[in-house]
């Protein structure tokens, strides 16, 4: 569903909040680890994972240190000097998850400093009412996800090889029981970013180690019935969550309220932190 994209690979001049002009370095550029549009909403904390690519668009497998972010909207500073530490535990590429609360809809200008270079990007933020995507603070959708006993029209219920153990119960049953819940929407065999398989494996490790419960839900209902995956029918779960990308992890507490959402690129440390927010 989602493919990563570089924000810029050309030298350009930007203006910082003080009005001073600076020239960016073409040796590196930021790459979106999230959909560049129809993704972020105003008024709530949002998570924006960025990667760094070289001048030829090859993503760096490791980052030498933190990136420092400044974010502006219409020349007004929204985030200043936010240092974000790279994450990479259990995933093939390092990334930095910038989190902040956009105060209003608009196109935000981002400058990330890395190795002496200033790397520009833009973030589109829309009004919350225009997106169906489930947000932190929303009720976790009570979806009867496919299980080993009830496939519910999804074949196969798991494209991991071997099939993962997170299909024993449905998300709806976990929510009804008043238990903390977590659901990963991902299609390991058809993921366009090669991240779905690794994050599913990490989630399996985390819930086993912490004696927690989690659900894996596939993106497509009939991938084996089509020649091209773009022609496959979406399974009910991604539609219920308003997803247009994968993977995505939603975590909710005992009250059924979403306490964290991880999108597109995330590692073992972020999975562990998200699960901990749900309590026991």
Features:
280 residues, alpha+beta, Immunoglobulin-like, Glutaredoxin, 4-stranded antiparallel sheet, 15 strands, globular
Number of domains: 2
Return the CATH class of the largest domain: Mainly Beta
Largest sheet report: 5 strands, mixed
How many beta-strand runs? 15
What is the level-2 CATH architecture name of the largest domain? Sandwich
- CATH H-level homologous superfamily name of the largest domain: Immunoglobulins
Overall mean pLDDT stands at 91
Instruction: Give the structural class.
Output: alpha+beta
Could you say what the CATH topology of the largest domain is called? Immunoglobulin-like
Give me the strand/helix succession: EEEEEEEEEEEHEHEHEEH
Helical element count? 4
Helical content, roughly? 10-25%
pLDDT below 50 for ≥5 consecutive residues: which ranges?
Answer: 2-6, 8-23
The side-by-side strand order for the widest beta sheet comes to: 5-11-10-7-8
Radius of gyration: 19 Å
The fraction of residues in strands falls at 25-35%
General shape = globular
- Amino- and carboxy-terminal Cα gap: 33 Å
């Amino acid at each position: 569903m989602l493919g990563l994209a570089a924000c810029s690979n050309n030298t350009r001049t930007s203006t910082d909040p003080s009005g001073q002009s600076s020239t960016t370095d073409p040796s590196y550029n930021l790459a979106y680890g999230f959909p560049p549009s129809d993704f972020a909403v105003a008024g709530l904390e949002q998570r924006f994972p960025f990667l760094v690519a070289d001048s030829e668009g090859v993503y760096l497998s490791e980052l030498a240190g933190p990136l420092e972010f400044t974010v502006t909207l219409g020349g007004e500073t929204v985030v200043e000097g936010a240092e974000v530490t790279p994450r990479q535990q259990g995933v093939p590429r390092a990334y930095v998850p910038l989190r902040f609360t956009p105060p209003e809809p608009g196109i935000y200008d981002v400058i990330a400093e890395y190795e002496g270079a200033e790397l520009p990007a833009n973030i589109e933020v829309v009004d919350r009412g225009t997106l169906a995507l489930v947000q932190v603070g929303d009720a976790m959708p009570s979806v009867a996800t496919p299980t080993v006993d009830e496939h519910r029209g999804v074949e196969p219920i798991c494209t991991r090889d071997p099939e993962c153990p997170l299909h024993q119960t449905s998300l709806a049953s976990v929510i009804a029981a008043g238990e903390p819940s977590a659901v990963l929407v991902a299609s390991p065999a058809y993921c366009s970013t090669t991240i779905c398989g690794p994050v599913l494996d990490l989630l399996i490790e985390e819930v086993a180690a912490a004696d927690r419960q989690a659900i894996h839900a596939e993106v497509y209902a009939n991938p084996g019935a089509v020649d091209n995956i773009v022609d496959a029918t979406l399974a009910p779960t991604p539609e219920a969550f308003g997803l247009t990308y994968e993977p995505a992890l939603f975590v909710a507490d005992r009250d059924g309220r979403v306490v964290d959402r991880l999108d597109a690129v995330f590692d073992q440390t972020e999975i562990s932190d998200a699960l901990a927010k749900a309590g026991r």
